[in-house]
Structure formats: structure tokens, C-alpha cells
Amino acid sequence: MRRIRWTAGAAAAGLALSLTWLAPAMSQPQDHAFSVFDVNGPYEKVIDVGSAGFGAGDVILQHHPLLDPGTAERVGTAVTKVTIVRNNASGNAEFIIDCTLKLEAGQVVFYGASRFFRLVDGDVFPITGGSGAYDGAAGSLVMQFSEVDGQSGTRLDLEFVTP
Fold first, then answer.
1. Which contacts (CB < 8 Å, 24+ apart) does range 118-123 have?
2. What digits encode the pLDDT tens for the residues 90-135?
3. Residue 142 belongs to what H/E stretch?
4. CA-CA distance, 149 to 124, in Å (whole number)?
5. Among 119, 35, 135, which Cα is nearest to 75's?
6. What whole-number distance in Å separates Cα of residue 29 and Cα of residue 44?
7. pTM
8. Does the chain have fewer CB atoms within 10 Å around its N or its C terminus?
């Protein structure tokens, strides 16, 4: 009788161990694709770091609401830091952006470099991570100047996977 209990216990432990080991291998990456609209304002602070006027080294800090572009309902917040790398006479500044999109299901982080004029037609930035339902996010985001419900800002089209 003891031998049967020991064998049954060992078999149960072996099964539990194999399921624990195989579970990560059985999970499939999840695809995500959605859009949000980053409204200009209400908080934006330009910090003039270099010589007087807009130029290299200046930092723009933003705390903007995120809207659903289809319904104009608020779905989150964008917290953004833009660092100016170089400006030219036409105002087509080159910049580095570091942004966290705070959404109900988690956060998505993107980072990259561009020029302001590229955002007229849209430019692509890498999604570098996330948290919550978006933990381990990897993919890309297209940022384009746009309007939603009479408000100006940028449309963000995200496509990424999570493990």
C-alpha cells in the first residue's frame, strides 16, 4: 500500500514539474494593433538648456491626454520627453523622443529619433517595452500630425507583440 502511494505521489510530482516546465513553451505571443491620439496640451514645458532660443540641448516635457481616435473618449495619458539634437533655419529640428503611453491595461514605451517635418506624413518609432498586459512589448509605432474632434495633436498607430 505504501509503495502505491509513493508511486502515485511521484507520478503526480513528475506531472506537475513537467507542466510547469512546458507552460512557457506552450504560450503563444499575442499580437496587438490599435491607435491612440495624443492631444496637444494641457501641459507642455520647454526648458531652454543651450544658448537663448530653441536649439540643441533644449528639452520639451509633455503630459497629454490620449484619446480613442474613433470616439474622442479619453483612454490614457502620454508622458513624453523630447530632446532637441539640432535645429535649422526652417525649424525642422532633429529630436530624440522618449515616451510612455499609460493605458488602462498597462503601459507601452517607445523611443527614437526623427525630424518634426517627417511627422507630417508619419514616421516610424520602435516600441521598446511595456508593462501589465503589454509586458515585453516589441514592435513599432507610426506617429503623424493629425486632428481629432477639432483638437490638434499626433495620431499614434501601434503594432506590437507581447510574449
1. 119/143, 119/144, 119/145, 119/154, 120/144, 120/145, 122/157
2. 879 999 999 999 999 999 999 999 999 999 999 999 999 999 999 9
3. strand 138-148
4. 24
5. 35
6. 36
7. 0.82
8. N
Q: How far is it, in rounded angstroms, from Cα 157 to Cα 25?
A: 30
Q: Which pLDDT score, from 0 to 100, does residue 5 have?
A: 52
Nearest to 117 by CA among 80, 88, 156: 88
Strand partners, 65: 77
CA 55 to CA 48: how far, in whole Å? 8
Name 109's bridge partners. 100, 129
Query: Which residue type does 63 have?
Result: H
DSSP assignments along 13-65, one per residue: HHHHHHHHHHHHHH---EEEEEEEEEE--SEEEEE--SSSSS-TT-EEEEEEE
| Positions in the chain short of pLDDT 50 | 1, 6-23
In the block, which residue shows the cell 513599432? 140
